[in-house]
Amino acid sequence: MNATNDQPILSREARKKVIDRTNWICVAVDAIAFVIKIVVGVSVKSPALIADAMHSLSDLAADVPLIILAKVSHHDADAEHPYGHARFETLGTVMLGGLLLAVAAGIAYESIQLFFADTRPEPSLAALITIIIALALKEGLFHYAIRQSRRARSPLLEANAWHARSDSMSSLVVLVGVIATLLGYPTVEIIAAVIVAGLIGHMGITLTWNALQELVDRGVDRKQQQAYLDVLASVPGVKDVHMLRTRMMGPSVFIDAHIQVGGYLSVSEGHQINEWALRSIKEKFSDVTDVTLHIDHEKDLDGDVPTHLAPLRPAIENLLFERGIRDYDRLNIHYHRQKATLEVFLLPGHNIDGWRNQCDAIVQEVPWIDAIYLSTTLHTSRAPD
After folding, report:
1. Most CB atoms closer than 10 Å: which of 2, 143, 170, 180?
2. Domains detected in the chain
3. Is the pLDDT of residue 1 over 50?
């Protein structure tokens, strides 16, 4: 995954606990901030503090759906969501990003209105102390939540952390306004508010854009893709890795790729190489949740899909039967560029030379037969189906 930090990747259960605990701490801090702001704001008749309390109330209201979405995102895959529910976390990030944009627009609008207002609110010492306490609470919450978001690699927690920062910035605007008014410079509050609105809006755009990119299946960066290719190519028996595609879903990465193995390997050996490739990449990258590998026996043809396909086993067995090639021990079929190479194993006692002419004639007459090899098997038991 394109990680933004060097924190070790938590297990699914540990990650869930970190997200749940952090979200509930956000609820507690938002509730405390709202109560102290609204109580003091009403008692000292401070419209700025009351408005800031409403901002905290909006944070508290946003916490509830975020907790629900975070819980849903950890549900196991089911019939309707075979890839799991991690995208619900991404959806929550989009919601928070939009909320940050709304907050930024609200702060800017109120600041412009204040600029043209004839009166300014009278600051008070109680309002000043309350704002400082609320600012310390929300700023502390921001640093805690952003640290936990990096531990859990959770864009939803990161968005919630910046949502907390938007509240602290709102409180900072009120604080600057109170101090500036005390010093005789009330317009400073307006300038500070516009700057803060710009910062919040920028963060809202960034979070929303990144989350939307994930919703439309953005993959990891090229450096990380190369790391996946290197691990797959290092598995013994893998001759080439190509057509690698990735997509992100919450903290998880999904990988699709083609691996090329030897053209004359048995199906079981090719499958075993596939199993080792799957294990190798999941052990190396713990954020890789799902890997789908397509096994190729040759390099994929450039351009369009071939207009014709070489026939399958029933048609080939029919052809051999019609030409007198019957009662053999087993038949191996190998395909290359839509031509078939046949290995016919005869039972002991069969006369190979007696069938050689028929096989040569088949190769000459049938364009999709490349070669036929005859040999005598060393045992009489048939290969398992």
Report:
1. 170
2. 12-215 (1.20.1510.10), 222-296 (3.30.70.1350), 313-376 (3.30.70.1350)
3. no
Mean of per-residue pLDDT scores for the chain = 80
Please answer whether residues 260 and 294 qualify as being in contact, where contact means their C-beta atoms are separated by less than 8 angstroms.
Answer: no
Point out which residues pair with 369 in neighbouring strands.
Answer: 340
In angstroms and rounded to an integer, the radius of gyration of the C-alpha atoms of the chain is 34
d(CA 379, CA 270): 24
Instruction: Tell which residue, 54, 14, 39, 81, has the closest CA to residue 251.
Output: 14
DSSP assignment of 96-125 = HHHHHHHHHHHHHHHHHHHHH-S--PPP-H
From 48-52, 109-113, 130-134, the region with the lowest mean pLDDT: 48-52
CA 139 to chain centre: 29
Give residue-wise pLDDT tens across range 135-146: 888 889 889 989
Annotate 320-383 with DSSP letters as a single string: HHHTT--S-SEEEEEEETTEEEEEEEEPTT--HHHHHHHHHHHHHH-TTEEEEEEEE-S-SSPP
